[in-house]
Amino acid sequence: MFHAPPVLPVARRVGRGARLLAAVIAGVCLTLLVLAARLTPSPSGHGTHRGLGLPPCGWVVAFDKPCPTCGMTTSWAHAANLDVASALRAQPLGAALALLTTVIFWGAVHVALTGSRLAAVGATMATPRALWVLGGLAALAWAYKLATWGG
Which residues of 22-47 are buried (b: 16+ CB within 10 A; e: fewer)? Predict the structure, then answer.
């Protein structure tokens, strides 16, 4: 005769603290996306950060070469305005991070409103290996920016 293993009790919903944290995360993500959507992307593929009142990139000024994050703000501005092709051209990793931020926003809203344990799934993805992969993607994105640099 077949006996099913015992079912262990599992919390079906997260508590108020986790829901509040999810709401804060959603707010931060939304702030970044709205800020990016309000910027006018630079046609050169970099320099959009100047619209935030920031100075010119020191790497560009000193070396006439892009820094490792060059084009990120421009990419986010394009992505937030749903121009994915331009976002990818400006900075592929920036486009991916803007998309990831959008996914995290909607996931956090879901957790905040429903108490879902969805965040636990996301937390399992935050591993040292994932950080190494992200670092490798950042290096590739910088190499892309160096190869396509027009000054």
Answer: beebbeebeebbeebeebebbeebbb
